[in-house]
Amino acid sequence: MPSKSFVVETIKRNQIIELLSKGKRVDGRGLNEYRKLEIKTHVIEKANGSAMVKLGNTEVLAGVKIDKGIPFPDTPNKGLLIVGAEVLPMAAAYLEAGPPDESAIELARVVDRGVRESEMIDVSALCIKEGKWVYSIFCDVNILNVDGNLFDATSYAVVAALLTAKMPKFVLENDVVKDTGERVPLPVHKIPVSVTIANINNTLVLDPTEEEEAIMDARITLDTEDGGNLCAGQKGEPGSFTPEQILTAAEWSIAKGKEIRQQIKEAAAHA
Amino acid sequence: MDENGIRTDGRRWDELRPLKIEVGVVRNADGSARIEWGKNKIIAAVYGPKEMHPKHLELADRAFLKCRYHMAPFSVDERKNPAPSRREIEISKVIRESLQPALFLEDYPRTAIQVYVEVLQSDGGSRVAGITASALALADAGINMRDLVVGCAVGKVDGKIVLDLNDTEDKEGSGDLPVAFMPNLNQVTLLQMDGFFTFDEFKQALELAKVGGMKVYKLQREALLRKYFSGGGPETSTTNAELMEEA
Q1: Number of compact structural domains in chain A
Q2: Do the chains contact at A230 and B202, CB–CB below 8 Å?
Q3: How much of chain A exceeds pLDDT 70, in percent?
Q4: Residue B203 lies in a domain
């Protein structure tokens, strides 16, 4: 059940909608403009990789932990890659502690889908002994402050943390897994970029704030990979899109994806 | 796919699996529908409008829509733990959100409308089959609706866009795009995607989902007419071959 109870006053709602009809937004942005995006990596020393992302006032922190693990029976030679997300109760006034609700589960699964389906990490290179030992990569995200568009902020944090992560190099000695002490980067192949678009009263806006999300009819998140192809997607919230709006959203995702990918790359390089 | 473009189960790229829909199958429910789509066997049942529990969550201006998508332990190859998985929780959410645009929830303030989707046997595309059945169950329950909602998945197999993936194609294929829409209002209410699609492929896939969905919509309508008006259509629904002839 939706537990979110962020309320936007009617007068504010009317103001947002009226501005949108003129192609403007409350915070002065254009319809297809992102808020200021800051990405900082290497923020948690004890994690194998980490990144802090600020997207406007939305703040998320991703940490990667890499260890040995047991592969799934249907993929005996592939490493494990699992994204989890927790919206901390401190992140907004209306939140309460408790197990992840359906929104948090959706968030983690959509971000996971983007990373997985883009084939960002070559999981087949993460096998130690087929059927017994593989590398396991847990990427956990803490949402520290909520101001809309958690999907994109979380995705960028996960991707930046994975890009900068160093994994222990394990070897097999007499059937026992040993840590060589060496630290190497992950086998990264691609960089997925998530782009989220909200439909508010039949106007599409990029990177919705929490106020905009509270009054939006529906949202769509589309991920692209380096080649500009779409690789994952999710429509959410109880509203709808016309097929034409979905194609516009796809075009925006492809165009914005290029810019943001560049920014993620730079953040990962300037560590 | 073989060299003639014939798929593992003998279908062409734009063919649906055999589809059978029946309305009114759960006696106790206010509305229900059963769908058999390929090897999918799914029952949807609707209760409501009824009293909302817990009471403090009731909405003053509309009904609270609840949805539970659940897979039976025996519905898949390896036994599934009956406890709701994260996947089922996510699918329950997106199914609910795909149905909600079609409902006049404002006609039933302070009540709850509960949709149950039980997957008895799962093949590819169980969520879109579940949506197709749920929309019928809601109509059968007499809930005021703007339109039906119809689901249909499109995917990519061997680099080609194909309609309505089966289980094997879903697992082996390189892309899956389940879509649900309101056929008369031309509004997309569910879209999920994994795998690689170029922009043109994405566009083509969206169009194909609409074409496939319209065929499913025809069967949906026939199933409703069969229950409520005599002579609404054949007892067992249209086969692929008949569908293709009409197309």
Answers
A1: 1
A2: yes
A3: 98
A4: yes
